[in-house]
TrEMBL record:
This is Cobyric acid synthase.
């Protein structure tokens, strides 16, 4: 049976996911078979496994760091917020239903057997399980039947490393305050603390490190720097939304919808030197980009309302008229159509006018499509004609069926589907996907830019359309790039963590 260690945080966005990934990579480098685990995740940025099951993207990133295939065992419960008080509840990769916060709070203890089954199976398969918590273990109003922080630590008998974020200030208060709010039994699980996101001269921090160890009685096992690594994130708190867009000549704008999902679709474009990609949430931020990307969303109808209220819809329509390429993925594709129908109240209920840029309409259904796909671009017309015939791969996650309303639009891709939607038999079949008309394109395929040469082809097309000659064709193997980033992460953490102490904590576990 594998040993376990858990990373908890003093609050959200302190770097738990990154620290977990780094530990997974270090253990892999040291010859162990490691796997990540998070009992309950809340995120809109999800992933479809080879079996057609849905899981949180952070655990996929951590599995890649560990060098293993992502499995829904690593994230048995996924909550995808549909509004401010409710979420779609996904258990073992499949939709259980949509629940309000109070309803789920009362229900969740019934999911403990699912959590234990997943964890114990991972425990049998691996040498080390690196468990990630969520938010803070000191949320005293939520401790009843808590199953993701100290509740999970108890179930797994896992020693805990508690991470605090010094970049936001008050890290010593974060660590001391969190420990003070834990029960005496819970405190026994905390075997080390980590001060994360440090910038500057560490010697200035050393008196504080000594004092916090004396105050808490818990050793500080590392002061990790603000790590400059480019890895996929799932959290809406990601800092990539506020980063400068870059200095490349090709301007790409991603509309930052309130319920944006799967923004990792654009990661490959972000790291290209020739591209300046920015996330836009107001008209005055849009400028005159060469391409506008409408991303996925957990609530298409609500976010389309926001698009209108913000003034971005007419701005996008004007951009289309001046020749800007408009490209929608999943919910963004649905918005580009003529009509949205919601007879089962999957989202807002009723019907809503779309943006009218593609001759399609979408009907929201009770069943969720979860598929991995491979295929090729169809014979395209317009600005993206050079993509015709190129191979692509990705996945679909959506609760809508989109069909053509009249002649005029053409399909974007021909796909081989590897897993069916919920309730359907497994197998493989062929289908067409998406629609394009003039300079507007839409598809359900997430990860469509990740295929070999596709991002580079987009950049070449945009450069040619803009009258720019690129001196060299930028080529990049996305997988090799990510592998390099995982190694940078692990090497940085090794330099700043006391790995000898962490291995000691792992070996000793938690006293009964």
């Amino acid at each position: 049976m594998g040993k376990s260690i858990m990373v908890q945080g003093t609050m959200s966005n302190v770097g738990k996911s990154l620290i977990t990934a780094g530990l997974c990579r270090i253990f892999k480098q040291d010859g162990y078979k490691a796997a990540p685990f998070k009992s309950q995740n809340m995120a809109l940025n999800s992933f479809i496994t080879r079996e057609g099951l849905e899981m949180g993207r952070a655990q996929v990133m951590q599995a890649e760091a560990a060098g293993i295939e992502p499995s829904v065992l690593m994230n048995p419960i996924l909550l995808k917020p549909t509004n401010d008080t409710g979420s779609q509840v996904i258990v073992n990769g499949q939709v259980l239903g949509t629940m309000g916060a109070r309803e789920y709070f009362a229900y969740k203890k019934r999911l403990i057997p699912d959590i234990l089954r997943s964890y114990q199976e991972l425990e049998r398969q691996n040498d080390i399980i690196v468990i990630e918590g969520a938010g803070s273990p000191a949320e005293i109003n939520l401790k009843q039947d808590e199953l993701v922080n100290m509740g999970m630590a108890r179930m797994a008998k896992a020693p805990v490393l508690l991470a605090g974020d010094i970049d936001r200030g008050g890290v010593f208060a974060q660590l001391a305050g969190t420990l003070q709010l834990l029960t005496e039994e819970e405190k026994k699980y905390v075997k080390g603390t980590i001060i994360n996101k440090f910038r500057g001269d560490k010697s200035i921090l050393e008196p504080g490190v000594a004092m916090i160890e004396e105050i808490t009685g818990v050793p500080v096992v590392g002061v990790t720097p603000y790590m400059q690594v480019d890895l996929e994130e799932e959290d809406s708190l990601t800092e990539r939304f506020s980063r400068p867009g870059g200095k490349g000549p090709i301007q790409i704008a991603v509309i930052r919808l309130p319920r944006i999902s799967n923004f990792t679709d654009f990661a490959v474009l972000e790291c290209m030197e020739q591209v300046s990609l920015s996330y836009v949430s107001a008209v005055n931020e849009l400028g005159e980009p060469d391409m506008i990307l409408l991303p996925g969303t957990k609530n298409t109808m609500s976010d389309l309302k926001w698009l209108r209220e913000s003034g971005l819809e007419p701005a996008i329509l004007r951009a289309k008229e001046r020749g800007c390429i408009i490209f929608g993925i999943c919910g963004g594709y649905q918005m580009l159509g003529e009509l949205l129908l919601d007879p089962y109240q999957v989202e807002e209920g009723g019907k809503m006018r779309g943006m009218g840029l593609l001759p399609v309409e979408t009907t929201f259904t009770k069943e969720k499509t979860r598929t991995r796909v491979t295929g090729v671009f169809e014979t395209l017309t317009g600005a993206l004609a050079e993509l015709s015939g190129m191979e692509l791969e990705g996945y679909e996650i959506h609760m809508g069926l989109t069909k053509s309303t009249k002649d005029g639009g053409k399909k974007v891709a021909r796909l081989a589907v590897q897993a069916q939607s919920e309730g359907a038999e497994e197998g493989q079949h062929q289908k067409s996907d998406g629609c394009h008309l003039e300079n507007v394109y839409g598809t359900y395929v997430h990860g469509i830019f990740d295929g070999e040469g596709i991002a580079q082809a987009f950049v070449k097309i945009l450069a040619k359309k803009k009258g720019i000659v690129l001196e060299t064709a930028e080529t990049m193997d996305r997988w090799q790039y990510k592998e390099k980033q995982y190694d940078i992460l692990a090497d940085t953490m090794r330099r700043h963590l006391n790995m000898e102490k962490i291995y000691e904590i792992l070996e000793q576990g938690v006293e009964a």
